[in-house]
Amino acid sequence: MLSLLQLELPLFGLLRDGKRTPPAPALEEKRSIALNGKLIEYSVRRSTKRRTLGLTIDTRGLRVAAPMKAKQVDIERLITRHGAWVQAKLREWQRPEHAAARQWSLADPLPWFGQPLPLKVAPGKPGLAVFDDMLILTVPRPEDRKDTRARLVAMIKEAARTDFSERLARYAAEFDAPLPQLRLTRAATRWGSCARDAAGGHRISLNWRMIHLAPRLIDYVVAHEVAHMRHMHHGPRFWAAVEKLYPDYLAARDEMRRMSLLLPEL
Questions:
Q1: Residue 180: what pLDDT?
Q2: pTM more than 0.85
Q3: CATH number of 3-259: 3.40.640.10, 3.40.50.1220, 3.30.2010.10, 3.20.20.70?
Q4: Model pLDDT, residue 3
Q5: Helix (H, G, I), strand (E, B) or coil at 40
Q6: What is the DSSP string of the chain?
Q7: Where are the domains positioned within the chain?
Q8: Mean pLDDT by 10 residues, the chain (266 residues)
Q9: Residue 101: its pLDDT value, please?
């Protein structure tokens, strides 16, 4: 059995236990619904692995995760019940400053551990380094924008793995816990998750896009997931463990929820 807890972006959530089996292909359909006289478009993604209905709002708009046999009337009832929240979040994602942050280009500064650094692209052997408060990206063909962007993402992931591994080792040692496996993700709706397999080992997944955030926020997410290695729930004992690892967790948790709207889309 695989137990899984995940740190949502921007909400927290708990998934039920499930067998470690390959997920069946999800089915996605486009729909629309009237909320307070305004037509809202959304997508429904159905999966055999899903047991409950869930709402997510991000750069792609409103999305509904649903079991294969979920009734459309139940989906619409859920959206209607949370109509005010849905409309508020959609407006929030559409604010100019948030749209500008997401519509990132190679000519824009790149948030790097909380600091927006100018990005200079130059020809050379592939590499990414910080020099004089500037990010220097070297690629074989700078004129190939698509290849340059893809190489930038790959190098960011490498940097994230190195940095996150060090933080994970530090917090696991402080928690007197075995070093878990690290997996990088680009989940649209969560910062991290902690999974436990049948043998009792743990795997922690972390969203590589956190490399854009201040180090103190990355530390909070890592501490949060390390605490799950002993407490696979969000009860009082879990939060006490988080507080021991990261005393200022309440402020960090609130800031993480706000920062989810400001990350660039690479």
A1: 94
A2: no
A3: 3.30.2010.10
A4: 39
A5: strand
A6: -BEEEEEESSS-EEPPPB---PPPPPEEEEEEEEETTEEEEEEEEEETT--S-EEEEETTEEEEEEETT--HHHHHHHHHHTHHHHHHHHHHHTSHHHHHHHS--TTS-EEETTEEE-EEEEESSSEEEE-SS-EEEEES-TT-HHHHHHHHHHHHHHHHHHHHHHHHHHHHHHTT-PPPEEEEE--SSEEEEEEE-TTS-EEEEEEGGGGGS-HHHHHHHHHHHHHTTT--S-SHHHHHHHHHH-TTHHHHHHHHHHHTTT----
A7: 3-259
A8: 43 33 59 91 88 81 89 94 90 65 78 93 93 91 92 96 97 95 84 84 93 95 96 93 95 83 76
A9: 56
Q: Which two tokens stand for residue 218?
A: 């990355």
Determine the residue type at 93.
Answer: W
